[in-house]
Specification:
homodimer; Arc Repressor Mutant, subunit A; 2 domains; 0% strand; Tetracycline Repressor, domain 2; mainly alpha; DNA-binding
Chain lengths: 185, 185
DNA sequence: CCGGTTTGAGACATTGATGTCTCAAATTGC
DNA sequence: GCAATTTGAGACATCAATGTCTCAAACCGG
Protein backbone atom coordinates (compact mmCIF):
# COMPACT_ATOMS: atom_id res chain seq x y z
CA UNK A 1 0.00 0.00 0.00
CA UNK A 2 1.56 3.28 -1.08
CA UNK A 3 2.27 6.15 1.30
CA UNK A 4 -0.17 9.07 1.34
CA UNK A 5 0.47 11.45 -1.57
CA UNK A 6 2.76 14.26 -0.41
CA UNK A 7 1.31 17.71 -0.79
CA UNK A 8 2.63 19.53 -3.87
CA UNK A 9 2.65 23.28 -3.36
CA UNK A 10 2.31 25.70 -6.26
CA UNK A 11 5.64 27.47 -7.01
CA UNK A 12 4.10 30.95 -6.75
CA UNK A 13 2.63 30.06 -3.34
CA UNK A 14 6.00 28.81 -2.10
CA UNK A 15 7.80 31.97 -3.29
CA UNK A 16 5.24 34.16 -1.53
CA UNK A 17 5.79 32.20 1.69
CA UNK A 18 9.60 32.38 1.46
CA UNK A 19 9.66 36.16 0.87
CA UNK A 20 7.05 36.82 3.56
CA UNK A 21 8.82 34.60 6.09
CA UNK A 22 12.15 36.39 5.55
CA UNK A 23 10.51 39.80 5.95
CA UNK A 24 8.42 38.94 9.00
CA UNK A 25 11.06 36.87 10.84
CA UNK A 26 13.72 39.54 10.25
CA UNK A 27 11.45 42.04 11.96
CA UNK A 28 10.52 39.64 14.78
CA UNK A 29 12.21 36.26 15.12
CA UNK A 30 9.31 35.05 17.26
CA UNK A 31 6.62 35.82 14.69
CA UNK A 32 3.80 33.24 14.57
CA UNK A 33 2.77 30.97 11.71
CA UNK A 34 -0.38 33.10 11.52
CA UNK A 35 1.61 36.29 11.00
CA UNK A 36 3.72 34.66 8.28
CA UNK A 37 0.60 33.29 6.54
CA UNK A 38 -1.17 36.67 6.60
CA UNK A 39 1.89 38.43 5.22
CA UNK A 40 2.22 35.78 2.48
CA UNK A 41 -1.46 36.09 1.63
CA UNK A 42 -2.11 32.38 2.20
CA UNK A 43 -4.05 30.32 4.71
CA UNK A 44 -2.26 29.04 7.81
CA UNK A 45 -3.35 25.52 6.82
CA UNK A 46 -1.29 25.88 3.64
CA UNK A 47 1.86 26.43 5.70
CA UNK A 48 1.08 23.42 7.89
CA UNK A 49 0.27 21.33 4.83
CA UNK A 50 3.72 21.98 3.34
CA UNK A 51 5.96 22.30 6.41
CA UNK A 52 5.81 19.64 9.13
CA UNK A 53 6.51 22.15 11.91
CA UNK A 54 7.35 25.84 12.41
CA UNK A 55 10.99 24.77 12.95
CA UNK A 56 10.86 22.92 9.64
CA UNK A 57 9.73 26.12 7.91
CA UNK A 58 12.53 28.17 9.49
CA UNK A 59 15.09 25.51 8.48
CA UNK A 60 13.76 25.35 4.92
CA UNK A 61 13.96 29.14 4.58
CA UNK A 62 17.50 29.07 5.99
CA UNK A 63 18.52 26.51 3.39
CA UNK A 64 16.92 28.64 0.66
CA UNK A 65 18.85 31.69 1.90
CA UNK A 66 22.15 29.84 1.84
CA UNK A 67 21.42 28.45 -1.63
CA UNK A 68 20.53 31.92 -2.95
CA UNK A 69 23.72 33.40 -1.48
CA UNK A 70 25.96 30.61 -2.72
CA UNK A 71 24.40 30.83 -6.19
CA UNK A 72 25.05 34.59 -6.28
CA UNK A 73 28.69 34.15 -5.27
CA UNK A 74 29.20 31.17 -7.64
CA UNK A 75 27.78 33.13 -10.60
CA UNK A 76 30.74 35.46 -10.74
CA UNK A 77 33.72 35.14 -13.01
CA UNK A 78 36.81 35.65 -10.87
CA UNK A 79 39.70 34.32 -12.92
CA UNK A 80 42.35 36.98 -13.50
CA UNK A 81 40.53 39.70 -11.57
CA UNK A 82 42.11 41.99 -9.00
CA UNK A 83 40.96 41.32 -5.44
CA UNK A 84 39.28 44.72 -5.09
CA UNK A 85 37.30 44.10 -8.29
CA UNK A 86 36.21 40.72 -6.93
CA UNK A 87 35.17 42.49 -3.72
CA UNK A 88 33.10 44.95 -5.77
CA UNK A 89 31.51 42.12 -7.79
CA UNK A 90 30.79 40.19 -4.61
CA UNK A 91 29.10 43.22 -3.05
CA UNK A 92 27.11 43.86 -6.23
CA UNK A 93 25.88 40.26 -6.23
CA UNK A 94 25.27 39.85 -2.51
CA UNK A 95 23.91 43.20 -1.28
CA UNK A 96 20.49 42.48 -2.85
CA UNK A 97 20.49 39.37 -0.67
CA UNK A 98 21.29 41.27 2.51
CA UNK A 99 17.93 40.26 3.98
CA UNK A 100 18.98 36.62 3.62
CA UNK A 101 22.23 37.30 5.52
CA UNK A 102 20.20 38.88 8.26
CA UNK A 103 17.76 35.96 8.32
CA UNK A 104 20.61 33.52 8.87
CA UNK A 105 22.05 35.69 11.59
CA UNK A 106 18.86 36.13 13.59
CA UNK A 107 17.02 32.89 12.86
CA UNK A 108 19.78 30.37 13.48
CA UNK A 109 18.72 26.82 12.76
CA UNK A 110 20.75 23.87 13.96
CA UNK A 111 20.79 22.40 10.49
CA UNK A 112 23.75 20.64 8.91
CA UNK A 113 23.03 22.06 5.45
CA UNK A 114 22.82 25.63 6.74
CA UNK A 115 26.08 25.16 8.67
CA UNK A 116 27.82 23.74 5.59
CA UNK A 117 26.54 26.50 3.34
CA UNK A 118 27.63 29.15 5.80
CA UNK A 119 31.04 27.50 5.98
CA UNK A 120 31.32 27.74 2.19
CA UNK A 121 30.54 31.47 2.35
CA UNK A 122 33.10 31.95 5.12
CA UNK A 123 35.83 30.10 3.20
CA UNK A 124 35.13 32.23 0.14
CA UNK A 125 35.28 35.42 2.23
CA UNK A 126 38.53 34.45 3.99
CA UNK A 127 40.17 33.62 0.63
CA UNK A 128 39.12 37.01 -0.70
CA UNK A 129 40.48 38.75 2.41
CA UNK A 130 43.85 36.96 1.98
CA UNK A 131 44.02 38.21 -1.61
CA UNK A 132 43.03 41.76 -0.56
CA UNK A 133 45.94 41.72 1.91
CA UNK A 134 48.30 40.24 -0.72
CA UNK A 135 47.42 43.04 -3.15
CA UNK A 136 47.64 45.82 -0.56
CA UNK A 137 43.93 46.71 -0.44
CA UNK A 138 43.79 45.69 3.22
CA UNK A 139 46.68 46.05 5.69
CA UNK A 140 48.37 42.85 6.83
CA UNK A 141 48.11 44.06 10.42
CA UNK A 142 44.32 43.82 10.39
CA UNK A 143 42.86 40.56 11.81
CA UNK A 144 41.07 38.63 9.04
CA UNK A 145 38.17 37.98 11.42
CA UNK A 146 37.67 41.76 11.67
CA UNK A 147 37.63 42.18 7.88
CA UNK A 148 35.15 39.33 7.44
CA UNK A 149 32.92 40.85 10.15
CA UNK A 150 33.05 44.24 8.39
CA UNK A 151 32.12 42.68 5.03
CA UNK A 152 29.17 40.90 6.67
CA UNK A 153 27.89 44.08 8.29
CA UNK A 154 28.42 46.15 5.13
CA UNK A 155 26.19 43.73 3.20
CA UNK A 156 23.42 44.28 5.74
CA UNK A 157 23.74 48.06 6.15
CA UNK A 158 23.96 48.48 2.35
CA UNK A 159 20.85 46.35 1.86
CA UNK A 160 19.07 48.52 4.46
CA UNK A 161 20.19 51.73 2.77
CA UNK A 162 18.74 50.56 -0.55
CA UNK A 163 15.54 49.40 1.18
CA UNK A 164 15.23 52.77 2.96
CA UNK A 165 15.78 54.50 -0.40
CA UNK A 166 18.69 56.83 0.31
CA UNK A 167 21.12 54.83 -1.87
CA UNK A 168 20.72 53.08 -5.22
CA UNK A 169 22.10 49.55 -5.61
CA UNK A 170 25.17 50.85 -7.47
CA UNK A 171 25.80 53.63 -4.93
CA UNK A 172 25.52 51.08 -2.12
CA UNK A 173 28.06 48.80 -3.80
CA UNK A 174 30.59 51.60 -4.33
CA UNK A 175 30.13 52.99 -0.80
CA UNK A 176 30.62 49.49 0.65
CA UNK A 177 33.91 49.03 -1.26
CA UNK A 178 35.03 52.54 -0.29
CA UNK A 179 34.15 52.13 3.37
CA UNK A 180 36.14 48.88 3.65
CA UNK A 181 39.23 50.00 1.75
CA UNK A 182 39.83 53.77 2.08
CA UNK A 183 37.17 54.62 4.67
CA UNK A 184 34.84 57.62 4.66
CA UNK A 185 37.38 60.43 4.87
CA UNK B 1 -6.51 50.06 53.31
CA UNK B 2 -3.00 50.16 51.81
CA UNK B 3 -2.06 48.36 48.60
CA UNK B 4 -0.17 45.08 48.93
CA UNK B 5 3.53 45.69 49.56
CA UNK B 6 5.42 45.67 46.28
CA UNK B 7 8.15 43.11 46.02
CA UNK B 8 11.63 44.53 46.64
CA UNK B 9 14.30 42.62 44.79
CA UNK B 10 17.86 42.40 46.01
CA UNK B 11 20.22 44.54 43.87
CA UNK B 12 22.59 41.62 43.19
CA UNK B 13 19.65 39.48 42.04
CA UNK B 14 18.43 42.20 39.70
CA UNK B 15 21.91 42.67 38.17
CA UNK B 16 22.22 38.92 37.59
CA UNK B 17 18.85 38.93 35.81
CA UNK B 18 19.68 41.96 33.65
CA UNK B 19 23.04 40.53 32.48
CA UNK B 20 21.59 37.06 31.90
CA UNK B 21 18.60 38.43 29.99
CA UNK B 22 20.84 40.48 27.67
CA UNK B 23 23.07 37.47 26.99
CA UNK B 24 20.26 34.96 26.46
CA UNK B 25 17.93 37.23 24.44
CA UNK B 26 20.80 38.38 22.20
CA UNK B 27 21.42 34.74 21.35
CA UNK B 28 17.72 33.95 20.91
CA UNK B 29 15.10 36.67 21.04
CA UNK B 30 12.45 34.04 21.75
CA UNK B 31 14.16 32.63 24.83
CA UNK B 32 11.76 31.60 27.62
CA UNK B 33 11.49 32.99 31.15
CA UNK B 34 12.83 29.60 32.29
CA UNK B 35 15.97 29.95 30.19
CA UNK B 36 16.59 33.47 31.47
CA UNK B 37 16.07 32.34 35.08
CA UNK B 38 18.45 29.39 34.72
CA UNK B 39 21.14 31.58 33.16
CA UNK B 40 20.68 34.15 35.93
CA UNK B 41 20.89 31.46 38.60
CA UNK B 42 17.50 32.40 40.07
CA UNK B 43 14.10 30.77 40.31
CA UNK B 44 11.52 31.50 37.63
CA UNK B 45 9.16 32.65 40.40
CA UNK B 46 11.64 35.41 41.23
CA UNK B 47 11.32 36.79 37.70
CA UNK B 48 7.52 36.63 37.89
CA UNK B 49 7.57 38.24 41.31
CA UNK B 50 9.46 41.26 40.04
CA UNK B 51 8.22 41.64 36.44
CA UNK B 52 4.48 41.59 35.73
CA UNK B 53 4.94 39.87 32.37
CA UNK B 54 7.71 38.66 30.04
CA UNK B 55 7.08 41.78 27.92
CA UNK B 56 7.54 43.89 31.05
CA UNK B 57 10.94 42.26 31.63
CA UNK B 58 12.05 42.90 28.04
CA UNK B 59 10.93 46.54 28.30
CA UNK B 60 12.70 47.02 31.62
CA UNK B 61 15.94 45.60 30.21
CA UNK B 62 15.59 47.86 27.16
CA UNK B 63 15.25 50.89 29.43
CA UNK B 64 18.31 49.77 31.39
CA UNK B 65 20.28 49.40 28.16
CA UNK B 66 19.35 52.89 27.00
CA UNK B 67 20.20 54.36 30.41
CA UNK B 68 23.59 52.61 30.45
CA UNK B 69 24.39 53.85 26.95
CA UNK B 70 23.25 57.43 27.62
CA UNK B 71 25.24 57.49 30.88
CA UNK B 72 28.38 56.33 29.03
CA UNK B 73 27.97 59.00 26.33
CA UNK B 74 27.12 61.74 28.88
CA UNK B 75 30.17 60.91 31.01
CA UNK B 76 32.57 62.24 28.40
CA UNK B 77 34.10 65.68 28.34
CA UNK B 78 33.74 66.99 24.79
CA UNK B 79 34.33 70.72 25.02
CA UNK B 80 37.19 71.84 22.79
CA UNK B 81 37.93 68.35 21.42
CA UNK B 82 38.43 67.50 17.76
CA UNK B 83 35.62 65.46 16.26
CA UNK B 84 37.84 62.45 15.62
CA UNK B 85 38.93 62.47 19.28
CA UNK B 86 35.29 62.61 20.36
CA UNK B 87 34.65 59.67 18.03
CA UNK B 88 37.48 57.74 19.67
CA UNK B 89 36.22 58.60 23.17
CA UNK B 90 32.68 57.61 22.19
CA UNK B 91 33.90 54.26 20.89
CA UNK B 92 35.99 53.69 24.01
CA UNK B 93 32.95 54.36 26.21
CA UNK B 94 30.33 52.56 24.15
CA UNK B 95 32.05 49.45 22.74
CA UNK B 96 31.89 47.71 26.16
CA UNK B 97 28.13 48.26 25.89
CA UNK B 98 27.88 46.72 22.44
CA UNK B 99 25.69 43.93 23.81
CA UNK B 100 23.19 46.58 24.88
CA UNK B 101 23.10 48.04 21.36
CA UNK B 102 22.41 44.61 20.02
CA UNK B 103 19.70 43.98 22.61
CA UNK B 104 17.87 47.12 21.52
CA UNK B 105 18.23 46.14 17.87
CA UNK B 106 16.87 42.62 18.21
CA UNK B 107 14.47 42.95 21.11
CA UNK B 108 12.53 46.04 20.09
CA UNK B 109 9.97 47.10 22.62
CA UNK B 110 7.24 49.58 21.80
CA UNK B 111 8.14 51.68 24.81
CA UNK B 112 8.14 55.49 24.88
CA UNK B 113 11.20 55.69 27.14
CA UNK B 114 13.23 53.35 24.92
CA UNK B 115 12.21 55.36 21.83
CA UNK B 116 13.18 58.64 23.55
CA UNK B 117 16.51 57.28 24.75
CA UNK B 118 17.30 55.94 21.31
CA UNK B 119 16.41 59.33 19.86
CA UNK B 120 18.89 60.97 22.23
CA UNK B 121 21.62 58.58 21.04
CA UNK B 122 20.75 59.25 17.42
CA UNK B 123 20.84 63.06 17.88
CA UNK B 124 24.23 62.77 19.55
CA UNK B 125 25.53 60.57 16.71
CA UNK B 126 24.21 62.87 13.96
CA UNK B 127 25.80 65.91 15.64
CA UNK B 128 29.12 64.06 15.84
CA UNK B 129 28.85 63.07 12.15
CA UNK B 130 28.21 66.72 11.17
CA UNK B 131 31.34 67.76 13.04
CA UNK B 132 33.36 64.91 11.46
CA UNK B 133 32.32 66.23 8.02
CA UNK B 134 33.09 69.84 9.06
CA UNK B 135 36.61 68.85 10.13
CA UNK B 136 37.29 66.69 7.06
CA UNK B 137 37.34 63.31 8.82
CA UNK B 138 34.34 62.16 6.79
CA UNK B 139 33.58 63.27 3.23
CA UNK B 140 30.64 65.61 2.72
CA UNK B 141 29.41 63.38 -0.09
CA UNK B 142 28.68 60.50 2.29
CA UNK B 143 25.04 60.28 3.50
CA UNK B 144 24.89 60.87 7.25
CA UNK B 145 22.52 57.93 7.60
CA UNK B 146 25.25 55.69 6.17
CA UNK B 147 27.85 57.01 8.65
CA UNK B 148 25.49 56.54 11.61
CA UNK B 149 24.74 52.99 10.44
CA UNK B 150 28.48 52.24 10.19
CA UNK B 151 29.12 53.59 13.71
CA UNK B 152 26.29 51.43 15.04
CA UNK B 153 27.64 48.28 13.41
CA UNK B 154 31.24 49.04 14.42
CA UNK B 155 30.15 49.18 18.06
CA UNK B 156 28.65 45.71 17.72
CA UNK B 157 31.45 44.06 15.70
CA UNK B 158 34.07 45.60 18.03
CA UNK B 159 32.21 44.30 21.09
CA UNK B 160 32.10 40.85 19.46
CA UNK B 161 35.82 40.97 18.67
CA UNK B 162 36.64 41.69 22.31
CA UNK B 163 34.19 38.98 23.48
CA UNK B 164 35.78 36.48 21.05
CA UNK B 165 39.21 37.50 22.35
CA UNK B 166 41.06 38.43 19.17
CA UNK B 167 41.16 42.15 20.06
CA UNK B 168 41.71 44.01 23.34
CA UNK B 169 39.37 46.87 24.22
CA UNK B 170 41.97 49.45 23.17
CA UNK B 171 42.73 47.65 19.90
CA UNK B 172 39.01 47.44 19.14
CA UNK B 173 38.59 51.19 19.74
CA UNK B 174 41.51 52.12 17.47
CA UNK B 175 40.43 49.68 14.73
CA UNK B 176 36.88 51.07 14.83
CA UNK B 177 38.15 54.66 14.40
CA UNK B 178 40.53 53.54 11.65
CA UNK B 179 37.86 51.54 9.79
CA UNK B 180 35.46 54.48 9.75
CA UNK B 181 37.92 57.19 8.77
CA UNK B 182 40.79 55.81 6.66
CA UNK B 183 39.51 52.27 6.10
CA UNK B 184 41.51 49.04 6.24
CA UNK B 185 44.00 49.67 3.42
C1' DC C 1 20.81 34.68 67.48
C1' DC C 2 16.55 36.45 65.80
C1' DG C 3 13.07 38.81 63.13
C1' DG C 4 11.92 40.36 58.81
C1' DT C 5 12.40 39.77 54.19
C1' DT C 6 13.57 37.53 49.83
C1' DT C 7 13.88 33.46 47.26
C1' DG C 8 13.30 28.59 45.03
C1' DA C 9 10.66 24.70 44.07
C1' DG C 10 6.85 22.88 42.54
C1' DA C 11 1.85 22.45 41.87
C1' DC C 12 -1.64 24.21 39.16
C1' DA C 13 -4.55 27.25 36.13
C1' DT C 14 -4.53 29.95 32.01
C1' DT C 15 -3.39 31.25 27.48
C1' DG C 16 -1.85 31.45 22.98
C1' DA C 17 0.42 29.07 19.33
C1' DT C 18 0.90 24.87 16.91
C1' DG C 19 -0.75 21.02 14.59
C1' DT C 20 -4.65 18.14 12.62
C1' DC C 21 -8.61 17.53 10.04
C1' DT C 22 -12.64 18.25 7.01
C1' DC C 23 -15.06 20.25 3.36
C1' DA C 24 -16.39 23.74 0.16
C1' DA C 25 -14.25 26.95 -2.90
C1' DA C 26 -10.83 28.21 -6.04
C1' DT C 27 -7.48 27.24 -9.43
C1' DT C 28 -5.41 25.16 -13.36
C1' DG C 29 -4.60 22.54 -17.48
C1' DC C 30 -6.61 20.02 -21.14
C1' DG D 1 -16.79 22.78 -19.29
C1' DC D 2 -14.71 19.36 -16.50
C1' DA D 3 -11.61 16.65 -13.70
C1' DA D 4 -7.89 16.86 -10.75
C1' DT D 5 -5.56 19.31 -7.58
C1' DT D 6 -4.53 22.99 -4.32
C1' DT D 7 -6.15 26.10 -1.02
C1' DG D 8 -8.73 28.75 2.87
C1' DA D 9 -11.60 28.78 6.70
C1' DG D 10 -12.68 27.20 10.78
C1' DA D 11 -13.35 23.71 14.36
C1' DC D 12 -10.85 21.24 17.56
C1' DA D 13 -7.06 18.79 20.14
C1' DT D 14 -2.48 19.29 21.93
C1' DC D 15 1.26 21.44 23.98
C1' DA D 16 4.51 24.57 25.83
C1' DA D 17 5.14 28.84 28.03
C1' DT D 18 3.31 32.09 31.15
C1' DG D 19 1.38 33.50 35.29
C1' DT D 20 -0.29 32.55 40.17
C1' DC D 21 0.20 30.77 44.57
C1' DT D 22 1.99 28.50 48.77
C1' DC D 23 5.38 27.23 51.93
C1' DA D 24 9.85 25.98 53.54
C1' DA D 25 14.51 27.53 53.13
C1' DA D 26 17.87 30.96 52.79
C1' DC D 27 19.60 35.40 53.56
C1' DC D 28 20.74 39.65 55.85
C1' DG D 29 21.01 43.42 59.08
C1' DG D 30 20.81 44.68 63.74
Amino acid sequence: MSAPRRHVIRPATLEAIVEAAIRVLNANAGATMSEIAVQAGVGRATLHRHFRTRDDLVSAIGIRCIEDMNAAVRAQATAGQRAVDRLRNMFRAVIPLGDRYSFLGTNYTDDRRVDEGYGTQLEWAVALVEDLKEQGDVGRDVPSAWVVAQIDQLVWTAWNAVAEGYLSADEATELAVRTLTVGLR
